[in-house]
């Protein structure tokens, strides 16, 4: 529960520049219309709620700025402002005045995390020093003779120096940056305590005193860095989803010039009205309308369905859609910043920015730590100096107060439980991407499911095989075996004997998006979409989809399919419904298909044929009424909804972006993994509350002893470490068997569920 990590790793150019030219601001900004523009800046030094308040407050004071919102996970601030073509606000200078470097944000995702590498190195140095100094201290505590004790103190000083200088630099930088700009944070008392303990230990070593406190300062650094590293790992996971979306967009596009010449230009230079050539195997770079060519598309980014879509002149295409078959010529209707894919990215960034609210309460509470501890330590030193006149004893007591009140136990109360819970879920084949989701999962009162790939496996099952003549089933199976379409696979599996086809085909050809056409002499057989295969009106069989077999456009057999429901789906839905949770389906699939699955699972509320933005709007509408939403989905089109939900879960079969946007990913096929996640979250919530209670009780009990001079800096470090060990030990109880019984879900609609 730290305020700032104190780690400033400037990006290229950020260290040497404190201003961004107006031209750069205008070129990098996005026109929102009506004179309003939007600029994104990266903030490498932003780490906590105090940083959010300082940055947003400074930017809102600039004339023309209407909105400034910090995304702490991405360390980015989005600014909406008004200005003319000649003048742009100097955002970088305003941020530099309060101690924050900034530079124009890039959509490219960093391949390495230099902050994490620095933290791990510092943690290793502190751990090595603390471990060896503690070993040497055993001899001192055991009553070593003065010469041996002095030698061990000198060795301890040499071991402690690298940790104090190298590992402690993160805290010193953060503390100095805060003090230099008239602020304070938790790293100020930590830095003071570490440096004073080391300085006093050096003084006592030079004067051959009985005790030194090198072990206190190094152990303190190690424990703090351990908690900080865990915190950084948790925050960093949220940044990967936006990067995964950005990689779906190509770097550039082939532009068809007026003389029919083709030039490859950067994506940022694409403007509405340009003609673009999209070859087979390429993704559509920006939104556009087909003006030439016909092809098949993988439009799962829009609908979430794996079924291919036909594109012909006049078809509107969204950025990110994959062209599968033939070249297409498009007329661009939007720039890269205004495309469908860019809008999905912005929706996810906005959702991630909202999530930082869950940490602000803890960070604000922690911000009270610095002034309170400073005041208590200073008053203790002054009181003892006035009462005894012994400066050495007074400084020693002040150090003990600073060390013993270190919020290590509070800092570990949440992340340690989360880490153990993550490991327990991993043992069950479940990956947790965001530790804070455990807390949010205990607040849900509404569960939203995607259909294809979530409630179903994306596979089809032939349900009326017994009603079809064996000869016609064998005929259809012979045709179906040339295709990997889910319906074709289901027909082929329904005729496992693989007999010789009753008709010898001269040719078989798959027509993408329609079906399979076979010719036998003058007869034409078609297996596929009813509207393509036959001229007859088809009978509704009440299933999710139908396929017909026709001969010369006359229907000779009708095949009815249902999607295969994912294992555990029925039991999970019943469990959630019995808990009083609202259960609903949000899907981009056809209404008939969604209705069929809803009937099978006894889900009354569902919405079909939704675009990604409409799913997000549905979640926001529920949130506006106070509902806490759990979204379970897998498709690329579900990514913004997964990011916007209060908490989200995806199967491992989900797209890369879907997995990146979710808080939990389960590796098996059974949806009962969701029940395991909820059970683990409930257990984690109990342990976190216990850890907070123990950490607070530790400080209430220990501080009076430190003020009273009963506790030395070494004893303070040991007590601090013991409190951390107790918290860690309690966190390890996550693996204990959970007693089954009622628990309450929902912030607005309590319900009882047995899991």
TrEMBL record:
The principal localisation class reads membrane
The way this protein sits in the membrane is described as: Multi-pass membrane protein
Stretch forming the signal peptide: none
Kindly state which keywords UniProt assigns to this record, in alphabetical order: ATP-binding, Cell membrane, Ion transport, Magnesium, Membrane, Metal-binding, Nucleotide-binding, Phosphoprotein, Plasmid, Translocase, Transmembrane, Transmembrane helix, Transport
Question: Which superkingdom heads the taxonomic lineage of this protein's source?
Answer: Bacteria
What are the TM regions of this chain, as residue ranges?
122-144, 150-172, 209-230, 365-386, 398-422
Q: Does the keyword Nucleotide-binding apply?
A: yes
Query: Which residues belong to any copy of the HMA domain?
Result: 37-103
Q: List, alphabetically, the InterPro entries matched.
A: ATPase_P-typ_cyto_dom_N, ATPase_P-typ_P_site, ATPase_P-typ_TM_dom_sf, ATPase_P-typ_transduc_dom_A_sf, ATPase_P-type_domA, HAD-like_sf, HAD_sf, Heavy-metal-associated_CS
Where does it reside?
Answer: Cell membrane
Write out the similarity annotation. Answer: Belongs to the cation transport ATPase (P-type) (TC 3.A.3) family. Type IB subfamily.
Annotated protein name in UniProt: Cation-translocating P-type ATPase
């Amino acid at each position: 529960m730290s305020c700032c990590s104190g780690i400033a790793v400037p990006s290229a150019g950020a260290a040497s520049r404190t201003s961004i030219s107006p031209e750069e601001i205008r070129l990098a900004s996005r026109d929102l219309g009506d004179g309003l523009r939007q600029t994104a800046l990266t903030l490498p030094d932003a780490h906590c709620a105090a940083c959010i308040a300082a940055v947003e407050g400074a930017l809102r004071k600039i004339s023309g700025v209407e909105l400034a919102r910090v995304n702490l996970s991405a360390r980015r601030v989005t600014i909406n402002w008004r200005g003319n073509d000649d003048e742009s606000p100097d955002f970088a200078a305003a941020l530099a005045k309060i101690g924050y470097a900034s530079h124009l944000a890039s959509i490219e995702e960093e391949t390495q995390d230099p902050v994490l590498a620095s933290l791990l190195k510092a943690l290793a140095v502190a751990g090595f020093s603390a471990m060896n100094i503690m070993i040497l201290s055993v001899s001192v505590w055991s009553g070593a003779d003065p010469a041996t004790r002095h030698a061990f103190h000198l060795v301890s000083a040499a071991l402690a120096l690298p940790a104090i200088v190298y590992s402690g630099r993160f805290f010193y930088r953060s503390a100095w940056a805060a003090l230099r700009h008239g602020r304070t944070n938790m790293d100020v008392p930590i830095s003071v305590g570490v440096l004073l303990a080391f300085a006093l230990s050096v003084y006592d070593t030079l004067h051959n005193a009985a005790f030194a406190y090198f072990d206190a300062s190094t152990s303190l650094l190690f424990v703090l860095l351990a908690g900080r590293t865990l915190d950084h790992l948790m925050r960093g996971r949220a940044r990967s989803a936006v990067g995964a979306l950005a990689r779906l967009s190509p770097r550039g596009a082939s532009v068809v010039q007026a003389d029919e010449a083709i030039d490859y230009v950067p994506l940022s230079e694409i403007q509405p009205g340009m003609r673009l050539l999209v070859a087979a195997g390429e993704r559509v770079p920006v939104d556009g309308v087909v003006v030439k060519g016909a092809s098949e598309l993988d439009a799962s980014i829009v609908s979430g369905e794996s079924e291919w879509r036909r594109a012909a002149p006049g078809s509107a295409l969204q950025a990110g859609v994959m062209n599968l078959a033939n070249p297409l010529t498009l007329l661009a209707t939007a720039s890269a910043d205004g495309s469908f894919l860019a809008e999905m990215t912005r929706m996810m960034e906005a959702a991630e920015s909202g999530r930082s609210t869950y940490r602000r309460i803890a960070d604000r509470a922690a911000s009270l730590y610095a002034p309170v501890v400073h005041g208590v330590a200073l008053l203790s030193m002054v009181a003892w100096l006035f009462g005894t006149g012994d400066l050495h004893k007074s400084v020693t007591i002040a150090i003990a107060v600073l060390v013993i009140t270190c919020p290590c136990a509070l800092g570990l109360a949440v992340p340690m439980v989360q880490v153990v819970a993550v490991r327990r879920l991993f043992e069950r084949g479940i990956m947790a991407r965001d530790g804070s989701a455990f807390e949010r999962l205990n607040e849900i009162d509404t569960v939203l499911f995607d259909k294809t790939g979530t409630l179903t496996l994306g596979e089809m099952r032939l349900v009326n095989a017994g009603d079809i003549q064996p000869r016609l089933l064998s005929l259809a199976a012979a045709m179906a075996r040339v295709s990997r379409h889910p319906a074709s696979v289901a027909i082929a599996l329904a005729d496992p004997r693989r007999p010789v086809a009753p008709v010898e085909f001269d040719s078989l050809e798959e027509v993408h998006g329609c079906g399979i056409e076979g010719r036998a002499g003058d007869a034409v057989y078609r297996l596929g979409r009813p509207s393509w295969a036959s001229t007859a009106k088809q009978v509704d069989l009440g299933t999710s989809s139908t396929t017909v077999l026709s001969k010369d456009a006359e229907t000779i057999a009708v095949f009815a399919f249902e999607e295969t429901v994912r294992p555990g789906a029925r039991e999970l839905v019943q469990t959630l419904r019995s808990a009083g949770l609202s259960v609903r389906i949000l899907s981009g699939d056809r209404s008939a298909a969604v209705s069929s699955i809803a009937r099978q699972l006894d889900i009354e509320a569902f919405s079909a044929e939704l675009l990604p933005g409409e799913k997000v709007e549905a979640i926001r509408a529920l949130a506006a009424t106070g509902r806490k939403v759990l979204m379970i989905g897998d498709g690329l089109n579900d990514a913004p909804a997964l990011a916007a939900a209060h908490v989200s879960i995806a199967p491992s079969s989900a797209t890369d972006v879907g997995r990146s946007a979710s808080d939990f990913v389960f590796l098996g096929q059974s949806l009962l993994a969701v029940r395991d996640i909820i059970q683990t979250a409930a257990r984690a919530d109990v342990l976190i509350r216990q850890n907070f209670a123990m950490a607070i009780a530790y400080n209430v009990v220990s501080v009076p002893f430190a003020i009273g001079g009963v506790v030395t800096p070494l004893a303070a470090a040991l007590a601090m470490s013991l409190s951390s060990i107790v918290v860690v030990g309690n966190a390890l109880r996550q693996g204990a068997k959970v007693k089954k019984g009622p628990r309450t879900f929902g912030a607005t609609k309590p319900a009882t569920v047995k899991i």
